[in-house]
Design brief:
Radius of gyration: 15 Å
Distance between the termini: 20 Å
Largest sheet: 5 strands, parallel
């Protein structure tokens, strides 16, 4: 159910270009802070790669999160790194490792794993890995990983997909 914007006063968002949109479009999230990095997947977080924040410049996401110790962390990663068809087991391996690292670094943080979102048909035509059946399969895996790691799972697919599995 909907929450008051004050819910987000102690929230951080970690994600890819979809998360960057919160900053780029100046969306008011009641004080939430954004760790959004275009093109980033869980491997960049695990490998402590320097990533570019549109707000803060080059940084290591784990360092930023560890220093902040947010009470709630929403994670939305995957669309950018899953755009090619094929094996996605390394994506899931890195996702598990990332959740382990985050849980260890942020022991008092409630973690929300968000599902991969549907895409528009014109996007899917140029990114063969972003088809409905594959993304739903990956989302099922992410839900299981979230459960295994004591994280909440938010199924964005069910509210963002139309009857064909395309982004509304």
């Amino acid at each position: 159910e909907a929450v008051d914007r004050s819910w987000f006063s102690d929230v951080w968002f970690l994600g890819d270009s979809l998360t960057v949109g919160f900053s780029d479009y100046s969306i008011n999230l009641g004080g939430a802070l954004i760790c959004g990095y275009t093109g980033v997947g869980p491997d960049a977080i695990v490998n402590r790669s320097a990533v570019k924040s549109s707000v803060r410049g080059s940084e290591v996401a784990m360092d930023v999160l560890t220093a902040a110790q947010p009470k709630k962390l929403y994670i939305l990663l995957g669309t950018n790194v899953l755009n090619r068809d094929g094996d996605y087991s390394s994506f899931l391996t890195y996702y598990r490792l990332m959740l382990d690292m985050i849980s260890q670094a942020l022991p008092n943080t409630q973690i929300y794993v968000q599902s991969i979102t549907p895409v528009r048909p014109e996007v899917r035509s140029s990114h063969p890995g972003l088809y409905k059946e594959r993304l739903c399969e990956i989302n099922n895996e992410l839900a299981a990983i979230a459960l295994e790691k004591n994280c909440a799972f938010l199924n964005l697919w069910e509210v963002l997909a139309d009857e064909n599995g395309d982004l509304k």
